[in-house]
Amino acid sequence: MASFEDYLRRALAEKQTAVDAQSKGVRALKFRPGVSKDEIDAAAKRLQTAVRSKGDGSNKEAFKQAVVNTLEKGRFYIPSFKIYRGVAGLYDYGPPGCDIISNVLAFWRQHFVLAENMLEMDCPCVTPEIVLKASGHVDKFTDLMVKDEKTGTCYRADHLLKDYCKGKLERDLTLSPDKAAEFKHVISVLDNLSAEELGAKLKEYDVRSPDTGNHISDPYPFNLMFQTSIGPSGMLPGYMRPETAQGIFVDFRDLYYYNGYKLPFAVAQIGQAFRNEISPRQGLLRAREFTLAEIEHFVDPEDKSHPKFVHVANLELLMFPREEQLAGKSAKSMILGEAVSKGIINNETLGYFIGRVYLFLTRLGIDKDRLRFRQHLPNEMAHYAVDCWDAEIECSDGWIECVGIADRSDYDLRAHSEKSGVPLVAHEKFSEPREVEKLVITPLKRELGRAFKGNQRMVVEALEAMSEKEALVMKEALDNKGEVDFQVCTLGKSVLLKQNMVSISMERKKEHQRLFTPFVIEPSFGIGRIIYCLFEHSFYRRRSYSENEQLNVLCIPPIKRTIYPAIKYQQFDGAAKLMAKSLKKAGISHKLDVTGMSIGKHYARTDTLGVPFAITVEAHKVLKVEHGVAAKRLQSAFIGNGSNKEAFRQAVVNTLERRLFYIPSFKIYGGVAGLYDYGPPGCAVKSNVLAFWRQHFVSAERMSEVWCPCLTPEVVLKASGHVDKFTDLMVKDEKTGMCYRADHLLKDYCKGKLEKDLTLSPNKAAEFKHVITVLDDLSAEEIGAKLKEYDIRSPDTGNHISDPYPFNLMFQTSIGPSGMLPGYLRPETAQGIFVDFEELYNYNGEKLPFAAAQIGQAFRNEISPRQGLLRVREFTLAEIEHFVDPEDKSHPKFVHVANLELLMFPREEQLAGKSAKSMILSEAVSKGIINNETLGYFIGRVYLFLTRLGIDKDRLRFRQHLPNEMAHYAADCWDAEIECSYGWIECVGIADRSAYDLRAHSEKSCVPLFACAKSLEPREVEKLVITPSKEELDLAFKGNQRMVVEALEAMSEKEALEMKEAFDDKGEVDFQVCTLGKSVVIKKNMVSISMERKEHQMGYFTASVIEPSFGIGRIIYCLFEHSFYTRPGRSEDERLNVFCFPPLVAPIKCTVFPLIKSQQFDEVAKLIAESLMAAGISYKLDATGTSIGKRYARTDELGVPFAITVDSATSVTIRERDSKEQIRVSIEEVVSVVKKLTVGQSTWADVLCSYPTHVATHADEL
């Protein structure tokens, strides 16, 4: 035995030596000048091979534990709501994890959306039931569940049966060959078993609850969608979407129109999806809320070729076709082109996306030898799918499906066509008319009008949308009976149709076009799964300087740089800070560390975070890496006319909806109030605004960005006050049940009287003005009394209304299958940051001040949404929580904004009936008008952010909250209000929230959320010490040990003392572990709980919070209005619409036009388009041959700042949108000129001085 141990020790030492040598080689290569990226990649690959041969991954469980521990310790991700014991299946991404997810998604957009010229959408998560009924999710999106008959704990039935069979195969050495074959067969057919067959097998094998040994119930289906209710009436059921795709399918008609009625085209969407998993496990691999990135590529079913397939045809991939699986063989390497030509992959477009997915994953850092493409077996295929492949990545949990690439046929579009009665079809025009026999349905509108009056249109549309089969069945029924019941979905009921109301016949007709339903090829990316596999593929361990110490390293592709002074020296610190400032201006994320610890420890700490490059300052003004930094110059926007507010607003909204900036969600189903989809140009504007927000705040202020789930357990929102106080007063129409906000009815009545009633006495006018002023202070009883006094009724029907009562504005749901954990969709993103304060404080080195930022969806179930994007039920918030010492709210960078002159509206001016006035920011702070420097600093930064976006500074003011608006705990609060056609709109709130939120969560969770300050004299304190015995817990709970340990360590003092008392009485206790979703039995030997006296030199306090909160949708709508103007067209009466977006936020940076339809010009235009794509510049190529003037007008209306016109083989013109001036540039220079203009390195004035101007000679130039 000893000799074997010696042999093993020697073998491991040899492997360790190989790893260390290869590791040093990689590091040396990185810093050696002139070494190519390919050489470094090859060396890194050899290093990973050495690590794997060493055996780090041989014990999968130990390897996985090392990865997870490193990730959680580095705050890559952590269980959500940890201070409340967590919620199974929900995770927060900490600052480094959030950086990685942002970079992965940015690369996904570049690799797919930009490179493939896709349209991008942004649709809401909240989805009405009718949409998901049509898609099949309401009836079929289920797993079979069983319950512990005593405890009620829920399990997936197929998981229990599979785990039992696998356990028997792996551990039962007495198993007969027949029994082993039987268990293997059960595993192979598991997905085909019905509930009855699954239940029979569970009973046959006597499978019981794995936690208690109790009997379990029979299996029954459990729908995996989170259910909620949309609107205050409770009459519109809805769900949180399980995938993003359905939002795209229901918008097909608008997208097809936007794409010029051409196929093929692709639409992409990134967003949250929700699945109420029965028993979440495997960390990020099976979560209840996750990020999906999906592409819906619409094609003609008769032509699934792809023009770019040749670019991926020679890729060699590890493929696992259906035949190999059924034959019990392994995956094998195949050339992609051969797989398509042999029919293994159904079509070229499917093959093309498989190739693109392969390139995306391997360029991210996924090991190509641990990536395979597995074809779905017959029992896995959806009944409508033509072919489906999964990109599976091998990790410690086995082969994990991370991307699904499916040919979904035309199922979804047909399903929504049938359910909505709106035909979702494409067309192909014929060069010559074709004679075909066609079913003709002719609704007789006069008879239908008599029978159905106002509903006639919906009946007509439903008749015209019938399939041929349905129409022939109706014809037969009408011939036999003379009448038939007919379901009209848009009416939600059946109607009686008679023979004289519709004519149905087969006729021979000449057709000029073919109508068809497109097929959909869909790649769907589980971003969380990809990222977890990337973590594992990037993780390895290497020896430290100490012989017994192992260092963890994540070799993730470049994301950050770190800067260290070689020693703690003032001159070096200054140079490091100067370098950090240059990196910030260049938009390069970085971490500055001037703590003075050894340079080796510096390197080790950031290697664990996966930071690829480190800059070490060894001499003043000498750096190991040099960067060129270009300052951005942003051009100001021209603001157009807005004299007639209503007409101006209508012109803006009509243009926005017609050009698909945004449209009502679920339009084919009649829409849902307060829910909107951002179409391709709107989605691009939103992405650009958020990218600039990140640059302006997160990067420039070195904030920690986090990502927390939308699903929030009730206990969290109970602590924050939202459950009890997040309400509006509502009234109902007593006959129809229609709901209204009580204060809106009263305010509208008073405003209407003041504006329209010319007979109003001065006293009555003063009364109405007073009511409007004190509206926010009135109780439900006082508002009710006023409504009765003025006899205010339902504005739609004139019926009487109910008394006002509070309605909670949060969307309610239930987390988990038991229904025992109530939850809500978050009304703000802030609470996720507050409950993570302890983790973020530790991540920041236990120093104040620091700021955490988050961008995400928020949800408010508005009673009566109105004003378009300004008052919606689902919206994007970007929030910052800046934690400070309550006794020191100064800000070191306040001097940078102190001299800004802003339009300010202090509380005193409002109460005195005065107007807003210009003030210098520093004066407002010094006079105490603004409470403190940090609040003032963020007001200045918000001003700079909004004006650089394109908001008119003369229509931007900062209004201080009045006493009746202030939360009781707030120290001061200001709103950045932007004037638009609706008046002054609150778009950003900047508040000093004091310590209220952290105190509230500390009290509710019993976890102290404190910061500490060193005291001069040490003090002796009595402290509760909880020490889990990891060895005993590991024996008892194995892979779940870590989660049990965390739950024990997170106990409050009260809970721990109760557990200690139970141990003394019984020796064991039931203990709820939320991250496991169940209770476990803890015995006395598993944890030590005691009170100990310790010396402390720290003073503890609760940090205050300064919070800027940005309503992104409101900012974008105001930007739309501030950027909109009209100018004369060619005819006297014609007015052309223009959006003068700055290049910073413009949805498309430039267009490329061949002047005339010419092969030579078309080829040059395509060459320029490819160069623009390579440079990362969004563009639109229009070679339709339409007059150049019309093409300019079309793109001006989209806000495209620059247009490249190809009018020769050697040079082109560049036109600037607002001035319409043009310059002439050589083809070789055009992309670099446009790049400089779009990133702000040059202004239009600069290029006018550098290049010759071009005077338009085209007859149709505008």
Automatic annotation (TrEMBL):
Its localization reads: Cytoplasm
Q: What PROSITE patterns has UniProt attached to this entry?
A: AA_TRNA_LIGASE_II
Question: What's the catalysed reaction?
Answer: tRNA(Gly) + glycine + ATP = glycyl-tRNA(Gly) + AMP + diphosphate
Q: Which residues form the Aminoacyl-transfer RNA synthetases class-II family profile domain?
A: 65-565, 650-1128
A Gene Ontology biological process annotation? Answer: mitochondrial glycyl-tRNA aminoacylation
Matching entries from InterPro entries are given as:
aa-tRNA-synt_IIb, aa-tRNA-synth_II, aa-tRNA-synth_II/BPL/LPL, Anticodon-bd, Anticodon-bd_dom_sf, Gly-tRNA_synthase/POLG2, GlyRS-like_core, tRNA-synt_gly
Source organism's superkingdom? Eukaryota
What is a single molecular function from GO for this protein? transferase activity
Identify the main location: cytoplasm
Q: What is its EC number?
A: 6.1.1.14
Q: Which UniProt keywords apply?
A: Aminoacyl-tRNA synthetase, ATP-binding, Cytoplasm, Ligase, Nucleotide-binding, Protein biosynthesis, Transferase
Task: Give, as one word, the top-level EC class.
Answer: ligase
An example GO CC term for this entry is: mitochondrion
Q: Name one Pfam family in it.
A: tRNA-synt_2b
What does the subunit comment say?
Answer: Homodimer.
Family assignment from sequence similarity: Belongs to the class-II aminoacyl-tRNA synthetase family.
What is this protein's name? glycine--tRNA ligase
